[in-house]
């Protein structure tokens, strides 16, 4: 698996995506949501339960909208760019609030009106970061291995990738309390912002646009030099597969690429019917 250049690149790409996605802070926000709500003044149990439910609903709706519409409408890279940038800005705002207004945890009533509004913005930023996560890393991390891995290694490759996925998820959930103690709470969120910024550069440099590509075209794409695959892969290795070139239209004519391929669907159907009739007559 790792001895073939194109497969090795795809495996390393998928593993890197899992690591960057898990350390971007989204799972930390989900697992320790009640602790983070308390940091912006939501300390009562009823408030925490309600905020947790709202956060879950937002992520649920966002995940389905992204899976069914956005990721194919916008493309993999564009959806990922938007999601990462949006999530980065949300977590950066939350980190800045914790850095500037640390007293919100212990004495929320002492905050000025401006600081109270800022705390509401920080709470909204947590919710919106979930939406951004669904648009970005969450969708791609589960989709990428099924799109790029060749059939001969897909089973074992997907197993390795998902084991790595859950290992990073577990490590992140266990490391966060120590990060919040050693780096302060806002320091942990600055760390997540740094990971997201690194992920943005990674996507631009290493991840090609895969939307609409056939599996047959992946080999040519990932055989390009590693420093060209992400930035110029679609340009240097366009999809020339027959599956991607032939389309059917309402007037029963299949065509693609400005008419380079033209198929009269009605003619094909007539020939098939005539062949069946001839075979029927010969049997009689």
UniProtKB/TrEMBL annotation:
Gene3D superfamilies: MFS general substrate transporter like domains (1.20.1250.20). One of its GO terms (cellular component) is membrane. Residues 1-28 form the signal peptide. GO terms for molecular function: carbohydrate:proton symporter activity. It comes from the Eukaryota. SUPFAM superfamilies: MFS general substrate transporter. It is found in: Membrane. It is a multi-pass membrane protein. This is Unnamed protein product.
